[in-house]
Design goal:
The protein has helices spanning 13-30, 44-52, and strands at 4-7, 56-63, 66-78, 86-96. By secondary structure, it is of the alpha+beta class. The protein has one domain (4-100): Gcn5-related N-acetyltransferase (GNAT) (Aminopeptidase, 3-Layer(aba) Sandwich). The chain has a four-stranded antiparallel β-sheet, covered by helices on one side. β2 (56-63) and β3 form a beta hairpin. The chain is globular, with a radius of gyration of 17 Å.
Length: 113
């Protein structure tokens, strides 16, 4: 399978929302004390605002049949009286559609060397 990597576009909204909702449902199911159910992750206008901003970035992997996964990163300013000011890129989340993970991602027992 051939993949290409690119920045997310507004036209990716439906696929991105589907993957973000699936990921969020997983979090709700496994950590209900933290996460609440939601009908959608971002509205299309919220998604467009994020894409047009400078603080959040979505990078997508694209296969022949569409988007196969994404990485979501946020730019954060860090600093305090104890630390020097700096800009950091934090990975907020990532997702790969299950059929695209490949056999290498299946659980395997640990082996000793």
């Amino acid at each position: 399978m051939e993949l290409s990597i690119r920045k997310a576009k507004l036209s990716d909204y439906e696929e991105m929302n589907e993957m973000l909702c699936e990921l969020h449902k997983y979090h709700v199911a496994h950590k209900p004390e933290i996460y609440r159910e939601a009908e959608y992750f971002f509205s299309e206008s919220e998604y467009a605002e994020m894409l047009n901003g400078t603080e959040q970035h979505f990078i997508v992997s694209v296969a022949e049949d569409g988007i196969s996964g994404f990485a979501w990163a946020c730019v954060n300013q860090k600093g305090s009286k104890f630390e020097k000011d700096r800009t950091q890129l934090w990975i907020e989340g990532g997702y790969v559609k299950h059929p695209n993970t490949g056999d290498w991602a299946l659980p395997k027992p640990c082996s000793r060397r």
